[in-house]
Design goal:
7 helices
Length: 160
């Protein structure tokens, strides 16, 4: 009498299970004499290394461009916020970052804000009233940070 396909598959499954069980026992017998030490997972699994704050890239040679680049770096490392110059966590808006990096030089701060508004209007049109209104119109800092970075390049191209 010939076996059906299902019977042959069940028989093959039983044979393979026996072979795997024998191989498992043979492996345990053959490796039982090898001394092992428990592995401390702290030695194997590591997290990212804290490298400290992100270094400031080489600054543009012109003062307004360098100020905007420092403001961009401050936003990247310190955080971006809206509806306030500085929030309770120390994050800053675009103008807040410029003001912090201008370090009291109101002329330099005004020049940087002017170039930033020019860069924003180049990208988003003349409908933008001011830098603060542009900043507060966004839900995340992705676009405002990109605009500060582009404004630094624009200021450098203008020799400011």
């Amino acid at each position: 009498m010939e076996l059906t396909l299902e019977e042959r598959l069940a028989f093959s499954n039983a044979v393979m299970t026996v072979r795997l069980d024998e191989a498992k026992v043979a492996y345990e017998v053959n490796t039982a004499h090898i001394p092992i030490e428990p592995v401390d997972l702290a030695d194997v699994v590591t997290g990212p290394v804290d490298t400290g704050p992100t270094p400031l890239p080489e600054l543009y040679p012109t003062p307004v461009a360098a100020l905007l680049q420092r403001a961009h770096h401050r936003l990247v490392t310190g955080g971006w916020c809206k509806d306030a110059l500085v929030d309770e966590d120390g994050a800053r808006c675009m103008i807040g970052a410029i003001r912090a990096e201008a370090r009291g030089d109101s002329g330099l701060e005004a020049d940087a804000a002017t170039v930033l508004l020019d860069a924003i209007r180049r990208r988003f049109g003349d409908d933008v009233d001011s830098v603060p209104s542009f900043n507060d119109a966004h839900g995340s800092g992705r676009v405002p940070l990109r605009m500060v970075d582009q404004a630094a390049g624009l200021a450098d191209a203008r020799g400011l």
